Amino acid sequence: LSQKPILVTFAKDEDSSVSLPKPPANLAEVRKVSSARACLFRRTSQGNFLSAKMVPPDQNEEKLDSEEPAIMSNLCRSNDNCLAEQRSYTPFNDESKQLICNERISRSEREDFIKGTAGKFLFHLRGESDQMKKPGTSSSWPRSTGWKRRVTGLEDETRINESEEEEIFWRIKILPILHELEKVEDNVENLCLACTKLYQALNEGSMLGKRCKRRSELLKTLYKLVDIDSDPLCLKLAKIILAMKVDGKNLLGVCKLAFKICRNEKNDSIIQNDGLLDCLLEILRTEDLQKNNEALLYCMGAIKFMSGNAVLLNEMVNKGAVEMLLQLMRQINNIKENDTHFSNLGHLLVQLTATLRNLADLPPARRQLICSGAASELSVALEQRVNDKDVCTYIVRIFSKLSSYNDFCAALADCSRCYILFLALLKKHQKQQDLVIRIIFILGNLTAKNNQAREQFFKEKGSVNTLISLFQTYYELDLNAQKWYHERGGEGKNHPKHPSEAEDVLIKLIRVLANLSIHPSVGAALATAHCVVDLLVTVLEYKSVDDCEELVINAATTINNLSFYKVKSSAVQDKKLHIAEMLLKLLMSNNMDGVVEAVRVFGNLSQYREICDFIIQKKIYKFMIALLDSKNQDVCFSACGVLLNLTVDKNKRALLMEEGGIGKLVDCLQDFGPADWQLACLICKTLWNYSENITSAASCFGEDTDTLLVLLTSLLDEELALDYSLDRDLRDYHKLYWEREFKPVAEKLLDRIQNHHSFLPAVTITPF
């Protein structure tokens, strides 16, 4: 050091309770002290010198039993306490504290302390001659015994004061409560009250954790009470024992105790008020995964039971449980399959993922899961544990819940291997309905709004074949269940309202196909897949909308999507007449959603002459005209689409005069025109085709002519037609369709009607 250290700089403080020694007069001796201080400071920067790892290797100490490492730690922590208390007793500066902190304790003195023979915990440092015997230490420790006596005197004085205070606190505050616990073993209520007082006293005296010197005595008293059959008492005991930072078998035992308490949901109310959750979360945060994996298992199991309670679940989120659990999962994911701990950690992962599933119900937890990269971490765990059905089920349940939200769907879709992984799980667990249905549901969510996800999944090897295989499996299961139902005399009874397990899988599976078919290239490819179309038609054949509404409607929706694609070798086109016959049943049902889907399919299929003839033959066109009165915008749009396709054929245009078709089209234009310019355009195109050979507006449109003229005139007036009170974006959207789709057709139609209203010659115009 560049300057000489001054050990005593506060001589003016005459009231100090410590008698300070005088500095040595010998200059050489001071230099030795300076050298020692420099060495000690270097050692201080490396950590607590009194920790077990810092004991010199030549001190061949005997191994301690399971409780003794805690006592070794007590020595370290008690030394820290000495330093904290020293501020009120000594005028030393920070460097002096470092000197005290770095003094070493001999093996014999440690043994005396452990055996309880250290008296007032007076520690005496070794003499110079003892240190000289040890190789490699002579340059690190001062040789001046005078210097050492001065420092030791201060240390001893501080420790005496602290030990006396702790001893007094123990005798006055703690010991009476321990006696109380030993005397009232039969009175559980009094024991609970005593435990509450004990925890408060320990907290007040800063004796929680491993710093309490009589920790063993305290724990022995508590362990004697654990066998009493009382969950409220065991909860109090568990909280104190955990707060004392036990380890090894003691930690495992108290975690089992906490597991037993939390397993009974009747204890939720007392758990909420006793702070056990904090202790358990601290274990998850601090304990070594491989060393204490069994204790962590029971700890995690207890937390999982807690997560079934809404109050405790919210408390977990507020205390940062989501990030703790994900951090623990990252540690587990780092353990590879060839590791001996891999199998056992699977049980821990089950409890962990079950807890995360419960947490996923809360919006704040969902946001944390999305922001913390849960999608990729869960995907890694799922891939590593593909053979563990329980782990797979819980992770898939988490995905199933979170995939209902767009942000998580986007994050999951970014996991490049998620589709391969889901397909592998579907193949491996094909008959595990609870797992299959959730994976299919996730795929449905992923492909619902993301065109890239549709393409990626479709391009995965065997994706469509896997879906077809599942379809066949669950179709057969449903068919067998239906036969069994009828054989049992259930034919005359009402069918269960809710879908069966097999039907539920089919519903969600068809939804995936419907979503995939939205992508242009994927939809075109699926339209040519006869096996896919055959299965969809099969659903319409064997299942009525009354049996399972959602299944039949989903099948019709998917057929509608596929019928949109006019591609070579289209399976829909090949089976269009058979499909039309199946849809006729749906069209005649009392289910309006089913009717709408059937009409939509007819809207696409009516582009083919054979289907138009079928519509005329079965008088379906009358039904379409009747639907114009439904006052339902979607129904009117679909029905008008069918009528438009019929009017392309000159021989079928007169059908619009039946059932008051013209008047109903005009009513639809009046009702929905300003709100739906696409529908208005469709109506105008239908009337345009219908009036191609017009000679007189009155004879063509009848009593609706004047109404139609006034309506078209007003709808073509931008100021009247477009609502400028709407949001700017919505107004721009309406204006776009008004200008591009409605206006060109409506202007031509209005011009035609006006020209023929005065019996002017007709002009031949090509139909739309």
TrEMBL record:
<protein>
    <submittedName>
        <fullName>ARMC2 protein</fullName>
    </submittedName>
</protein>
<feature type="repeat" description="ARM">
    <location>
        <begin position="619"/>
        <end position="661"/>
    </location>
</feature>
<dbReference type="InterPro" id="IPR016024">
    <property type="entry name" value="ARM-type_fold"/>
</dbReference>
<dbReference type="InterPro" id="IPR000225">
    <property type="entry name" value="Armadillo"/>
</dbReference>
<dbReference type="GO" id="GO:0007288">
    <property type="term" value="P:sperm axoneme assembly"/>
</dbReference>
<dbReference type="InterPro" id="IPR011989">
    <property type="entry name" value="ARM-like"/>
</dbReference>
<dbReference type="InterPro" id="IPR038905">
    <property type="entry name" value="ARMC2"/>
</dbReference>
